[in-house]
Amino acid sequence: MLSLPWKTVALGLSLLGVWFSVEVECFPALFDRISELPGQPKVGFQQYSARDNLVFLQNWFLKFPQYRNRSLFITGESYAGHYIPQLAELMIQYNKKHKLFNLKGIALGNPVLEFATDFNSRAEFFWSHGLISDSTYKMFTTSCNYSRYVSEYYRGAVSPICSRVMSQVSTETSRFVDKYDVTLDVCISSVFSQSNVLTPQQVGETIDVCVEDETVNYLNRQDVQKALRARLLGIRKWTVCSNVLDYELLDLEIPSITIVSQLVKAGIPVMVYSGDQDSVIPLTGSRTLVNQLAKELGLKTTVPYRVWFEGQQVGGWTQVYGNILSFATIRGASHEAPFSQPERSLVLFKSFLEGRPLPEAF
């Protein structure tokens, strides 16, 4: 999650039955920027992604005007907690003059919304799931919390105390636990290659074994790249996370929850959902931020905290504020919830698109 791959920054957009993804590498200006890497200044990740995706959507609607009046929803996960709200904000600003985007809502999964709250919730998650000891939990919350460590790391000045704390945390949590889904086993070959993937033993035969490794191999086939008209610029091999560009990593510390607040004020429904087995951006931090935002906006609880169902099983928990701001967990889901719990994720998205509460019974 800490590495922010330029080439894989994608948005999921739904236009009542039309689903497509948008990647920032679609734009000629970005191709030029990537091809001239030597001597280039640092790329301000947040400056480009929202603006360039707005340009893509403007041109897409010009080419396919038959979709202009359809309801538009945007969703994304992890760092999308930054660039999805930013894009939605630009859409609202653009609509003041041009009325192009029929934006009806955004959904953010395990999103980075506020640096300290999101990152420091990791300690409690590790401790409550038995991944670290009582003594390490105390150090991780008093001597050096995770946001401090990341801040120091990005500035190239990790203090001795933070180095000791993180060394102990890493030892106890083990690299053989997938931090994006702490309850599942890992694909051993992927652990050794620093690529964490879910294994099928505990999620059933519907989940592929080491799917990330297989995807990387597939997308590096020349015939596949030719069919996709994909070019490798400045790199020899496509990878899930790329370090080709030098990002402004400190942008991570800029809160985006304030933008979410402005979207709600503008009448845009917002749903924040969390796979409840993710320790990278744990549900506790997201739930706290949504609750705080509801209080700041004076939104009353319209759906009290309760379970919701997928089929005859509990799909997760949810709470709704003012029928415009909602929080939901997806039980048993990872950092990328739709991958590990597709059926439950489908129920959640379907309810959101239809503007209905999550199922209260089966």
From TrEMBL:
Give the domain of life.
Answer: Eukaryota
Task: Look up the signal peptide feature and give its range.
Answer: 1-26
Return the Pfam families for the record. Peptidase_S10
Stated EC number for the protein is: 3.4.16.-
Give me the Gene Ontology terms describing cellular component: extracellular region; vacuole
The molecule here is called: Carboxypeptidase
Q: Which keywords are on file for this protein?
A: Carboxypeptidase, Glycoprotein, Hydrolase, Protease, Secreted, Signal
* InterPro entries according to UniProt: AB_hydrolase_fold, Peptidase_S10, Ser_caboxypep_his_AS, Ser_caboxypep_ser_AS
- Per the annotation, which location comes first and is thus the protein's main one? secreted
Which GO BP terms apply? proteolysis
Intracellular or extracellular location(s)? Secreted
Question: What is an example of a GO molecular function annotated in this UniProt entry?
Answer: serine-type carboxypeptidase activity
